[in-house]
Amino acid sequence: MAELTLTPNLDHPDDFYAALIATHDGLSDDQSAALNARLILILANQIGDTEVLTAALQAAAKAPEGATA
Amino acid sequence: MIHDRYQLAFKLYPYERSADQDAETPVRHPVVIMGGGPIGVATALDLGLQGIPVVVLDDHEGIGMGSRAICFAKRCLEIADRYGCGQPMLDKGVVWNLGKVFHDDRKVFEFNLLPEQGHKFPAFINLQQPYFERFLVERVREAQAAGAPIELRGKNRVDNVTTHDDHVTLEITTPDGPYTIEADWLIGCDGASSPLRGMMGLDFEGRVFEDSFLIADIKMVNDDFPTERWFWFEPYFKSGASTLLHKQPDGVWRVDFQIGWDVDRKKELQEENVRARLDAMLGDVEYEIVWTSIYTFQCRRMKQFRHGRVLFAGDAAHQVSPFGARGANSGMQDVDNLGWKLGMVIEGRAPESLLDSYNAERVHGADENILNSTRSTDFITPKSKVSHMFRNAVLDLAEQYEFARPLVNSGRLSVPCVYDGGPLNGPDTLTGGPTRTRVGSPCPDAPLGAGFLLDHLGGAFTLLTIDAEAPDALEESGVPITRLALSASDDASGGLAERYLGMATSGVYLIRPDQHVAARWDGFDETATRGALRRAIGLE
Predict the structure, then answer these.
(1) Nearest residue of B to residue A32 by CA position?
(2) Would you say residue A65 has pLDDT above 80?
């Protein structure tokens, strides 16, 4: 059974982050939100496994104590 | 007249009239360096210790006030050590390993630099820049006394340069009036705003970041903060959009507030305003302000670092944001790269084209530093609502989940540049050899007897053999290669074998005068060694 990976797994974290931010360059806030939604759905399809996706949804919903957002 | 543009921390090269000023015709020098800052003086040391006459011109008589560059990386210390001034830096510097990252009032995570054992120098020391510069100048004085042909000329301002095919003419102003000299080679180490770059009308391309940072160096009366690097994103005390706290020698702390672009510099630098920010951060703590400054920064470089007989090094050639300590540290790598090449060209042992490899290798280094420091800047100072949202999402996740921590970027600390794909690189055929010592890499240190491996490398070409046979000395195209014969068993800790053999049982390395690997093999092959040497000096 697959498990949600919460340890580092990106082979080039800085490259990915820079590419992610660059993809949003020049977009309005609404366009950015829409892009993020599409991206999440693409990545979810890549993962496929319901249990992993459920665990990911729960991990994302759990904001740290005192965090603003 | 020559007016001081800044106050001096140390007056180290007072104006003295030079015989050149009374010469009938302009005196020709092999090398003239513009700028008596750390990069200019280090370049003079490298060349002077090779016996090459060098004149350094600076429009001041010493070192400017202010701590400025405070973080010196291992590679920079190793280079300084090759020039004979690594030890005083280490003795004076503060060693740190632990960093903590905060968001608002919460600790996101902490990191330990976890320095590898068996190196002469630590991963980083913190040291005020004026001390670094003073140790370099003191080393110049010592070298001069031993006969090194180095001249430091204070209050010598270069007002004009004319470039020719085989030399450069410099018009200089002094307190005694103007004079003219010529140089076979001119090196521009004249800093971020490089007057030389301006005089030659050369490009300087890249990004200017619209943000200002306020530095306050302070001494606390009751100082019980640990020797750690503390970085806040959006700190609860609201003294800046980000804040850095870092320890320096003499009980001084560097506090660095990100205060935004549209600020009234003069007002922000008034003591009561600096204190308001510090008080909010430190609470009920008594402190003395040692130095304050406001700076902005740019991430950009010259297209080419070589323009015929003129070469640029350090901030004059490239600038980065301060995140990651990649300014002075990369400037010292420029010096390390340029010194031996220019030395060999001047002595007629290598073709002039060898200097084009300085451009290729150090442009590669500058691009790496600019990329890393630009990314850190984009993370620390997000430019859009969505990038700010992602940044804070990374911080929130990093607090709970390990996976997000590699994405947190409060500065990717300076590591030495590997000249992958460089024009001087020879064969890399050591089967099972470690990646970290691949061709183009700077040699990592390792314990050796009572000392260290790097004490035995550099300054000339070395053939390092580990459990391999080879002649003790070779000469190719007039360049001597000296063998350093070692065995894996020379280092009981296993560091030498781990760093230089990996899975291999023997290895042969051709090492450049700047301690970078030129080529490596399983065993000694004379034809291959000679070929690699010719390639490393630009003959092939």
Answers:
(1) B386
(2) no
- Three-state secondary structure call for residue B149: coil
Take residue B513 and report the two structure tokens written for it: 């005068």
pLDDT reported for residue A53: 97
CA distance B120 to B98: 19
User: Do residues B172 and B157 lie in contact, with contact meaning Cβ atoms separated by under 8 Å?
Assistant: yes
Shortest CA distance to B229 belongs to which of B119, B124, B316? B124
**Chain A residues bordering chain B (beta-carbon distance below 8 Å):** 5-10, 13-14, 17-18, 20-21, 24, 27, 29, 32, 36, 59, 62-69
Residue (of A46, A49, A50, A17) closest to B403 by Cα position: A17
Supply the pTM of this predicted model.
0.95
Q: How far apart are CA B121 and CA B119, in angstroms?
A: 5
8 Å CB contact of A32 and B375: no
- Which of B313, B343, B332 is CA-nearest to residue B513? B343
| Neighbouring-strand partners of residue B159 | none
B219 touches chain A (CB under 8 A): no
The residue behind tokens 């060209």 is B345
Do B62 and B9 touch, CB atoms closer than 8 A?
A: yes
* CB nearest to A64's CB, from B106, B378, B379: B106
Question: Cα separation of B120 and B85, whole Å?
Answer: 13
ipTM of the complex: 0.94
3-state secondary structure B370-386: HHHHHHHHHHHCCCCHH
Asked whether residue B293 carries a pLDDT value surpassing 50, the answer given is yes
C-alpha to C-alpha distance for B134 and B280, rounded to whole angstroms: 35
Max intra-chain CA distance, chain B: 75
Residue B412 touches chain A, beta carbons under 8 Å:
yes
The pLDDT value given to residue A66: 62
Q: Is B388 on the interface with A (CB under 8 A)?
A: no
Residue B46: φ, ψ to 5°: -55, -50
Give B305-349 as a 3 state SS string.
CEECCEEECHHHCEECCCCCCCCHHHHHHHHHHHHHHHHHHHCCC
Q: Give the right CATH number for B8-18+25-94+123-205+300-368 from 1.10.443.10, 3.40.50.150, 3.90.950.10, 3.50.50.60.
A: 3.50.50.60
Contact (Cβ atoms closer than 8 angstroms) between residue B518 and residue B537 = no
**Per-residue DSSP letters for B410-463?**
S-----PPP-TT-TT---B--TT--GGGSTTPBPPP-EETTEEGGGGS-SSEEE
Report the C-alpha gap between B34 and B315 in whole angstroms.
12
The rounded distance, in Å, linking the Cα atoms of B324 and B370 is 10
Element (H, E) at B96: none
| Cβ pair B529, B474 in contact under 8 A | yes
Mean pLDDT over B230-244 rounds to 95
Q: How far apart are CA B424 and CA B518, in angstroms?
A: 7
**Domain B435-536 bears CATH identifier 3.40.30.120:** yes
Find out whether B413 and B322 touch, Cβ atoms under 8 Å: no
Q: Nearest 5°: CA angle at B270, between B269 and B274?
A: 70
Nearest CA in chain A to B372: A14
